[in-house]
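The passage that follows is intended for readers who have already worked through the single-chain material. We present the inputs for a multi-component assembly, then the predicted structure in tokenized form, and finally a short commentary. You are encouraged to pause after the input and sketch how you expect the pieces to fit together before reading on.
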Amino acid sequence: MSSAFENLGKRIVLGETRAAARAMRDVDDRVPGYMDLLKAIFPSTGTAFVIGITGNPGAGKSTLTDRLIEQYRRAQKKVGVICVDPSSPYSGGAILGDRIRMTRHANDANVFIRSVATRGHLGGLSRSARDMVRVLDAFGCDIILVETVGVGQDELEITRTAHTTLVVMAPGLGDEVQAIKAGIMETADVFAVNKADRDGADGTMRDIELMIALGSESMVATGKKKGHAVHAGVKVDAIPFAGGADEPWTPPVIKCISTQGEGITDLVQALARHRIWLETTDLGRARRRTRLAEEVREALRETLIDTATQALAAEIDRAVSEVEARTTDPYTATERLLTAFKTA
Amino acid sequence: MSSAFENLGKRIVLGETRAAARAMRDVDDRVPGYMDLLKAIFPSTGTAFVIGITGNPGAGKSTLTDRLIEQYRRAQKKVGVICVDPSSPYSGGAILGDRIRMTRHANDANVFIRSVATRGHLGGLSRSARDMVRVLDAFGCDIILVETVGVGQDELEITRTAHTTLVVMAPGLGDEVQAIKAGIMETADVFAVNKADRDGADGTMRDIELMIALGSESMVATGKKKGHAVHAGVKVDAIPFAGGADEPWTPPVIKCISTQGEGITDLVQALARHRIWLETTDLGRARRRTRLAEEVREALRETLIDTATQALAAEIDRAVSEVEARTTDPYTATERLLTAFKTA
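Having made your guess, compare it with the prediction:
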């Protein structure tokens, strides 16, 4: 291992902010050897509680995140925040505006905020988020908030890198329908209905509770089929219990008004309860193992693709030309590429 | 090759509807040997014009698709339609409602409509769509419409399997912002502003035209970075011209009222112009080659992942347990899995 990264790893574990900042950049940019850094710090990770925060723009996500930082700081926790934006470059401006609200923590040495920009493909982004979480974990953050912009497959993929996923909604955004489309119900652990002083807050509460009820049923039918139904799937799959509690988790729905700091304490409580569920129940442990398995599979997928496309650059070009000339079909070409990779 | 599939392939090329229906199921289910079928029919493909149709629910996508089918049928074209729904199972009902509008073509032997349901992962769905398009192409469809539900990374991924991507919008849906987030501007070839008799239609037109203008600039900056900016990227990349026309493509924005059949002729014209652009200009040919390269790469990715996860099932389980026990880190585990795969 490059002693440079070994040394950087040591400095991160010692809590050196500059080292952490440097490491966050390096893992995001995937500079040569960044893997050595991640390997070096891994033994110092595993203590942080990672919370994924998602929800539509307009739900007041950033203000809520800001309040959560405040609460955890009151409890003397060291807090890391990763803001992920997988959306198109055009939206950059709007998001920047949201972010600014968090800058009042910028001078607090125990609050570490970083943004990660969009990448070409989805997997790459959630992997970057995961790696950056590891750095913050080794850096000694007790709480790590991973906030995504908007709701979509990409964002949900990212929140699945967290222990607990918090979905923020607000009355009158018509979030409910979009939530259903985006598959939120299968991923959410805790719901926050923000801006609860607005008209329709109770309606939104009811809608979400209804969807939770529907979801746990629907998962019985679809759980097997759907890749991202694992969490709900855990509720229905037959799991051999090792004698521990086998309480299933039903996502609580918490009302809050983040601009006034109302309901934040309840929210923190709900998040803490979910952490306890993850750590003390068989279903919780099963869920953690499932997520870990997902990480290993995702990492394998990415490594396979990166290695293959690099190793086969020329062969791929040739294959494309042949398919273009219709002298071969894409399926035979692919099989040839696979063989070429395995014998490379 | 299994003579069963060879024979099925022959029957498809001869235009046997039952054979095509059977083949569509087989490729969607990826029954053992389905690759042989795709290889068998490939020489008989390449003549169809494939149009991807996307846009938010509420934009009147299905009604518009219905009108397009009508127009192409008037022109004596054989039409294939693939309806893709990558969204959560809960939305099933709503979509079914939309679909019903198309059933009046159900008795027309020259209109072939099939739906493809959601899969665990994204790539799998666009690959299924691509394979089903090949079947319809070999089946002799002149026009193949691939309609997706809603707008998102998944849907855009799918529309990229088409020659031409039509994005349907409507006034008062606030589509514009979502379009920006979803990255539509990088993928759209033709815009339809549907329900143009509604208030705000002109505003929507202007917004889209502005975004198109912004897009082509922004691509100069981001084109290199963004995986799905290729189309716009073509506008700015330096391409050695072989003497052909080098006219870049600027997406036209067509007003229509699909419920009354207004603007559909203009829309069909715009789609035809884009096809000509693809076939007669260097930029168009470059775009087609890029898409072909994407297909080969995607097929390679999928084959790699499928083969590896099958071959390494046991090793992956072991790796997960070791990472769980923290006797190894995910990164070392992944490297080991890669080696195991290449030496398998």
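Commentary: Chain B touches chain A through 73 residues (CB under 8 Å). The first strand of chain B starts at residue 49 and ends at 54. How closely did your sketch match?
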